[in-house]
Design brief:
four-stranded antiparallel beta sheet; 17 strands; alpha/beta; globular; seven-stranded mixed beta sheet; 9 helices
Length: 342
């Protein structure tokens, strides 16, 4: 039967399905269909689909089997998918195990189910995990650098045509920020010089380099930098990526006046590194500053700290005040896109 569907290129299918699912827009009773290189995701309300997605009418079949976790559980569980890993955040271990068992029994292409066992901690922003189902590899012992990861806490995650090898027990990575990373990368022009101050495994670095920029990525986490180099190779941009393990405050003087664009995705403490960002900035530089603030004034503190560091050497213009997501009750994760002009 002909129904409203979001049509996307196949490699963007999982990220698009996740975006739609977050808005409860996926018509679960209908089959997601692949045809001629396009993925068709049936939706419940075409008018609520984000404007950047294409809605078409397409012939879609009903699902004949109860093959999703919700069908087996009788309720809709909350989880994230990262490559072939499913991530839960459940306080009740019995409920977590029940969900994990249903996920493994479903038709989701999953190898491992993990439950968060700690908050993000330490300078390296990693957390502990409980392996609930699938491969029983210890959370600290996954291998790295393999051509394809399929077990334990290491996986290959794909978004917007890029792929990232990573180990969730060794590095910080949030699939929820895929749309935000794409928003920033879309602003990058060929031959730009981009500096990512907290690069991780390269989710900003790689797409910026794929658009023709020369990119420097710095991170304290040695394992993250190893994955960054591997991901640059996997995506064919190793010639345009410089990966540095170290404290960005110490690295910044080596790149004084260098960057056309600086990315500061460390929202809890980016304010401590604004002086370093100003050091890195060239004569005309866009700064992407991420912050977490109270909803009453989510942008003011960040703008104030940038102006204090950059003025009067630079003219400071806030081009975009952007809410990335809700972080906690009354707290917002936000981004300021700020142009610094010397």
């Amino acid at each position: 039967m002909e129904v409203a569907c979001v049509r996307v290129e196949r490699e963007q299918g999982e990220e698009t399905r996740r975006r739609l699912a977050e808005r409860d827009l996926v018509a679960d009773e209908l089959q997601i269909t692949v045809e001629d290189g396009w993925l068709y995701v049936p939706v419940t309300d075409a008018g609520a689909v984000p404007d950047d997605l294409t809605v078409v009418e397409h012939d879609i079949a009903k699902r004949n089997t109860q093959d999703m976790p919700a069908d087996l559980l009788g309720f809709e569980p909350t989880y994230e998918r990262l490559g072939d890993i499913v991530i839960l955040d459940e306080d009740d271990p019995d409920r977590a195990q029940r969900i994990a068992d249903a996920i493994m029994e479903s038709d989701l292409p999953v190898e491992t189910v993990l439950n968060r066992a700690s908050k993000v901690k330490g300078e390296l922003r990693v957390r502990d995990w409980d392996v609930l189902a699938g491969n029983e590899t210890e959370a600290s012992g996954a291998s790295r650098g393999s051509e394809d990861a399929s077990s334990g806490t290491e996986t290959v995650h794909r978004e917007y045509g890029c792929e990232f090898l990573l180990d969730v027990a060794e590095v910080y990575f949030s699939p929820r920020l895929a749309t935000e990373r794409h928003r920033v990368a879309e602003q990058v022009e060929s031959e730009e010089r981009v500096f990512d101050m907290f690069a991780g495994v390269g989710p900003f670095v790689v797409p910026c380099a794929k658009r023709g920029a020369d990119v420097v990525g710095v991170d304290l986490n040695e394992r993250a930098v190893e994955y960054l180099r591997e991901n640059a190779r996997r995506n064919g941009v190793e010639d345009r990526v410089t990966a540095i393990q170290g404290d960005v405050g110490e690295v910044a003087p080596e790149y004084e006046d260098w960057a056309d664009r600086v990315i500061m995705n460390l929202p809890h403490s980016a304010d401590e590194f604004v002086d370093a960002a100003v050091t890195i900035a060239g004569d005309d530089c866009v700064l992407h500053y991420y912050d977490i603030q109270h909803e009453d004034d989510p942008f003011g503190p960040g703008e104030a700290v940038i102006r204090a560091a950059a003025e009067p050497e630079y003219e400071v213009e806030v081009e975009t005040r952007h809410v990335v997501r809700s972080y906690a009750p009354h707290e917002l994760n936000v981004c300021l896109d700020v142009r610094l002009t010397r």
